[in-house]
Amino acid sequence: MRITAHDCCPLQPQPTAEEAQWLRRLATSVRASDLVIPFADERDDEPIVYCAWDGTWWSGRYVGSLSFEGQRLTIKPRFGLSTLRNWLFEATSVVLTESPGQLRPDESFIVQLLATVWAHGFVEASRHGLPALRRDVSSKSPTVRGRLDVRSSLRLLASRGGEVVSVRSERSLVHAASNAIVSAYGVLRRWLPDEKWLPQRAKELLPNLMAVTGSRPRVPTKAELDRIRYTPITAGFAPVAELSRQIANRRGLSADIEANGETKGVLLDVAELWEMYVVNVLRKAATPLTVKHGTRERMTSRKLLRSDVFGKEIGTLIPDAILFQHGEVRAVIDAKYKSINPTANAPHGPQREDLYQIAAYLGRYSPSTTTATLGVLAYPHDPSTPAVSFAESHSPWSLADGKKVLFVALPHEPAEAAGKLREIFQ
Description:
By secondary structure, this protein is an alpha+beta fold. The chain has 3 domains: about 1-130 and about 175-270, no CATH class; about 135-170, no CATH class; about 285-425. The protein is built from 12 helices and 18 strands. The chain has helices spanning about 15-30, 80-90, 110-125, 150-160, 175-190, 200-215, 220-225, 235-250, 270-285, 350-365, 390-395, 415-425, and strands at about 1-5, 35, 50, 55-60, 60-70, 70-75, 135-140, 145-150, 165-170, 265-270, 290-295, 300-305, 315, 320-325, 330-335, 375-380, 395-400, 405-410. β5 (about 60-70) and β6 (about 70-75) form a beta hairpin. The model is unreliable at about 95-105 (pLDDT under 50).
């Protein structure tokens, strides 16, 4: 069984009864977070596929390929791979080539995206060089070199060895992070042998790592990576090492169908990528105003409710972006990787929970009715529906206390999206 779908869309055609039973087991048994390659912080789990109230099967916000119980599901980007390239470049300054290399036709189309994200992370982490970490090295000698290991030295002297044991600290590339990075590189190189996806800086650094680890090091466990003590300079290698471990353990990133029915695959959270795209475009459009990324800069988060009795707070609010002017909140922006156009569940376009969410943001970040704080919900433009949506064409909208909410569909080209946002905040 092989099912192909597009993200955030109803399955076309709808599954047969047998396929629906399999999708139902997949939805309840497989966690997206176990397969998703993260760009940044951990995100809330959402269903990979789900059945709506009317019995229609939909795919979620992920793209990629996975196998479950010996069957395969492939979810492709609804706006096309070229659009993901634009968003990824804007969010990470990564340039993706057009040629994906020699992939088998049935393998995940997301491999090139993943390889480029990995390469970009490795190069960024290597700004100050490779991850040389300190480790203790023991040596036997008639003289002390470093710190004396008293217990080991006494045992050695008792055996009349005539030497003592010393321990000294030295920088070394021999550790689990190096093994993980080289293991991931080996997997990606087998999938994309032309290496057009690999930056020149990475090509210069990787041979130095491989000289230490060998070409086929053992893939470390997550526990081994967690035990590494990084310095402030090498801290950037921590997420790269974890991403490398995930890549290496997926045996080539494929969703190969195996007889034992093991769940395998790789997914990309497109909603997370859309959020990063919106924030970076906003930074270009809002200059000289200050833009803070709500999900990464935790000091921007606030609580919705405060107890009058004990002062405790509940209900964390974390908008995607907050726009400041002279220290005051000018706008609260939330990126929604959803449709702004009317649907059966949302006849006016925006979903009810999103309206409640932006109203809560404005209530907390703009408590004064005199403060001109704008709430913005940013959706991706859908080329298949060129007409301006009802929600956007009637913007801005007013809450009962006079605060304004604006709906906007942003183009997929960064320059066009920045221009549209610039008109709002001028």
